[in-house]
Specification:
Blueprint (H helix, E strand, L loop, with lengths): L19 H9 L14 H13 L11 E5 L4 E7 L25 E5 L4 E7 L17 E7 L4 E7 L6 E7 L4 E5 L5 E6 L5 E4 H4 L2 E7 L2 E6 L13 E7 L4 E5 L8 E2 L2 H6 L2
Parallel strand pairs: 1-3, 2-4, 3-5, 4-6, 5-7, 6-8, 7-13, 8-14, 9-13, 10-14
Antiparallel strand pairs: 9-12, 10-15, 11-12
Protein name: DUF7330 domain-containing protein
Pfam families: DUF7330
InterPro entries: DUF7330
Length: about 270
């Protein structure tokens, strides 16, 4: 039987033949598959987490106040988190010397007679923290470290809003190493009879050399225009090393940084 193309009995279809060129292109460039979701935090999230952890460091010990530590023959080393607003009952505090009053009590006092002292100090912010104003005296956090026959090291770090601090360090027969926070803004009194004084280059670039009277050098770190004729109640460091060297740097600097103070200091740091 002969069937003509126009015959209604012939089934028809709507299939369209794809041109050869388009078919080849589709084969060479298949549609991209959607990538699976990442199981790692994004860079932005990681950065935010890191910033948060830096803003709220994890301490090795709980905050305290009016801490007094003394050792006759052993070294003293540790991390001390000081909250100057924490109330400690007087009955739990060590007795004061006869000539002392409660106003003389230090927020942190660490001493050893023959051993070394190495303190990592964190200062927490005060409840009613206000920007420092030299014309409005504020109560400073007082820190006292010392040894008679060995080295003394202090690394001070502050939480934003911490009150100004007064740090005193002393030794007769050892070196003194001081690492200051970048927020430090105040006076340095560095005294040595038979030793040397060296400042890290970063400290030297940010301080004004005021004077040297007898064996004491005086510096001011920060904006000197904030100082007037009234008593200074801002940050202050007083160091006395009779027979040892004194080294001052910022807390986040490595030990192999260069110092102003001589060739040996630049070669060996502290």
């Amino acid at each position: 039987m002969i069937i003509h193309p126009n015959d209604s009995a012939v089934p028809t279809t709507d299939l369209k033949v794809q041109p050869a060129a388009e078919t080849e292109l589709a084969t060479q460039n298949p549609p991209e598959e959607t990538a699976p979701p990442s199981y790692y935090p994004s860079e932005q999230h990681a950065t935010a987490s890191t910033s948060s952890s830096l803003a709220q460091p994890m301490f090795k010990s709980k905050p305290t106040n009016y801490l007094n530590l003394f050792s006759e023959h052993s070294s003293v080393r540790g991390e001390y988190v000081i909250d100057p607003c924490m109330n400690i009952p007087t009955s739990l505090l060590p007795p004061l010397a006869p000539e002392e009053s409660e106003a003389d009590r230090k927020n942190l006092c660490v001493h050893s007679k023959t051993g070394s002292v190495n303190a990592e100090i964190w200062l927490l912010n005060t409840r009613d923290a206000q920007p420092f104003d030299s014309k409005t005296p504020t109560k400073r956090t007082t820190l006292d470290l010392g040894s008679e026959h060995s080295s003394v090291t202090a690394r001070v770090q502050t939480i934003q809003g911490a009150a100004p601090f007064l740090l005193t360090m002393s030794t007769k027969h050892g070196a003194v190493h001081v690492a200051l926070p970048h927020s430090f803004h105040g006076l340095l009194f560095l005294t040595t009879t038979h030793g040397s004084v060296s400042l890290a280059d970063s400290i030297s670039e940010n301080c004004t050399y005021l004077s040297q009277v007898d064996m004491t050098r005086r510096y001011f770190i920060g904006d000197l225009t904030m100082v007037d004729d009234s008593d200074w109640t801002g940050d202050e460091v007083r160091v006395e090393a009779t027979h040892g060297k004194i080294r001052v740097k910022y807390v986040d600097e490595n030990t192999d940084i260069s110092y102003k103070g001589g060739l040996l200091s630049r070669l060996f740091g502290w």
